[in-house]
Amino acid sequence: MKITEQDLKNISLLSKIRIDEETSDSLTKDLESILTMVNKMDELDTSKVNPLTHPIENTQTLREDIEKKDIEREKLQKLSKEKDSGFYLTPKVIE
Amino acid sequence: MSELIKLSLTDQILGLTDKSFSSKEITEAYLNEIKKKKSLNCYISVFEEESKENALIADENIIKNKARPLEGIPIAHKDIFCIKDKKTTCGSKMLSNFISPYSSEVFSKLDNAGAITLGKTNMDEFAMGSSNETSFYGNVLNPINEKLSPGGSSGGSAAAVRANLCSFATATDTGGSIRQPASFCGVTGIKPTYGRVSRWGMIAFASSLDQAGIIAKNAKDAAIALKYMSGFDQKDSTSLNEEVKDFQKEVDAKQDHVIGIPKELIENIKNDQVRDSFNNSISILEKDGAKIEEINLPHIEYSLPAYYVIAPAECSANLARYDGIRFGHRSDSVSSLEDLYVNSRTEGFGREVKNRIFIGTFCLSAGYYDAFYNKALKIRNLIKNDFDEAFKKVSSIAMPTCSNSSFELGSISDPVEMYEQDIYTIPANLAGLPAISIPSGIANEMPIGLQLIGNYLDEGRILNLANKFQKLTDFHEFK
């Protein structure tokens, strides 16, 4: 399977990861090799098969809706480099 | 003192209980060994002072007859399990500054059972790799031959057990990350049924495949460790609300076994030593009274392609949380919000993780979703059905853990060739079945493993069969 320059641009845009020019050739080679292996799936006719998203077919267990206070905001925000008065800071998004 | 670290978990528990030695002695012996074998790079962090303090507390509990089941036993956790107030890196630069504000259920359970955490083991970045070479903290060396890979992604845990740097270690398995390194290092590794062990606080890679398990010296030790790690957890919505059987009793119980052999798969094994060793293992079990049945798993050859769509797809969604804002690496060169996302992620992730995010993103993108992701999920269903059919007539299924023994570090650069490492381990993850790898022979002077796959929630049976094999052979003894 061929990966075009446009495909690479789309993947980079969607995944928010930059693809440098120096690595784009070897990356294209890797991705093409992986997708070629993946294409083996086409040998199988799966038109009458249902997709299986989860290996165990049990109903999700729901817990009682009881208020808990186990999230410590300050402690969690300590992990962020940039914060102020309980807010996370990012570069300006509106002019 | 160095003899203590070589004892099995069973003997260590006995020795601590009858006060033949103390937790202080055994903990210090492990810490000394860790220092001596630092070059193996098994640990990302070691909690020296805290381990010593906890050993003293354990010794007091033992004296006061208040010992918990794993009281004073020094263990290691894969650095994918969060421990409160401790660095949890997941082998990545992205989390090199992450001090966890909470503990994983796996850690809490073993901690409450009295185990002492010596430190956290090295691993492939975000558990993505089969050689430990993708770790941001450098690769682990195989203790049997340091030029070779310990396997991955739980290579640090497997090598640490093999090198006597802990009594047993926790690990995780998404496509073979417990069983393949166990095979490469000549140790025992079990991935239980999906949902058996809580994923709370275990950093996510592919949520429908990830499962925590144990790497230990032998099946008996693994059974004890798994017993105290398993169980329903309200905090994990996919955790199974099922009774946890006493694996410790089951491992030694009298059980009859019917072992299914996927004949076609075995005939197609390319490596003669791997095939011969497998056939030899089966005849050992057959002579011991196990019944052998040929089975058919017609879709198993499609496991690898289906996995390399599903796992990257889930990975690309899970790793979207690393945005540079709330936790994890944040780039310093930022002038816009887009820059913040892109630069933080580009700098924080390594090549293999990026490859998998790219593949997952591509397979889930408009126009490709049906052809790749949906198709893979349908194949997953076919594979699960193959196993369901097989388990109607057998109690476990045997196949090799890997198609080869360990390879030289740096020798595999083609990603697909690396992915093929997991060709025999992936099917159990896709179906959510429990599976164990035990040392069963030698190829190219390195250990190889026998893999036993069990039916849902039937960990006890494969542990029992593994224990039977280990009573009849000595491949699991470190020589």
Topology, please?
The complex is a heterodimer of chains A (95) and B (479).
Chain A: H1 5-15, H2 21-38, H3 73-77, E1 83-84, E2 87-88
Antiparallel strand pairs in A: 1-2
Chain B: H1 9-17, H2 23-36, E1 43-46, H3 48-63, E2 74-78, H4 105-112, E3 116-121, H5 155-162, E4 169-173, H6 179-185, E5 188-191, E6 211-216, H7 219-229, H8 247-250, E7 258-262, H9 263-267, H10 272-287, E8 291-295, H11 303-318, H12 337-348, H13 351-364, H14 370-390, E9 396-400, H15 415-419, H16 426-431, E10 435-443, E11 446-454, H17 459-472
Parallel strand pairs in B: 2-3, 7-8, 7-9
Antiparallel strand pairs in B: 1-3, 4-6, 5-6, 5-10, 9-11, 10-11
Walkthrough of the structure:
The complex is a heterodimer of chains A (95) and B (479). Chain A is mainly alpha-helical. Chain A contains three helices and two strands. Chain A has a two-stranded antiparallel ribbon. The two termini of chain A are 43 Å apart. Chain B contains 17 helices and eleven strands. Chain B has helices at 9-17, 23-36, 48-63, 105-112, 155-162, 179-185, 219-229, 247-250, 263-267, 272-287, 303-318, 337-348, 351-364, 370-390, 415-419, 426-431, 459-472, and strands at 43-46, 74-78, 116-121, 169-173, 188-191, 211-216, 258-262, 291-295, 396-400, 435-443, 446-454. In chain B, helix 5 (155-162) packs parallel to helix 6 (179-185), helix 7 (219-229) runs antiparallel to helix 17 and helix 11 crosses helix 14. The longest helix of chain B is centred in the last third of the chain and has 21 residues, at 370-390. Chain B is globular, with a radius of gyration of 21 Å. Chain B starts with 8 loop residues before the first helix and ends in a 7-residue tail after the last helix.
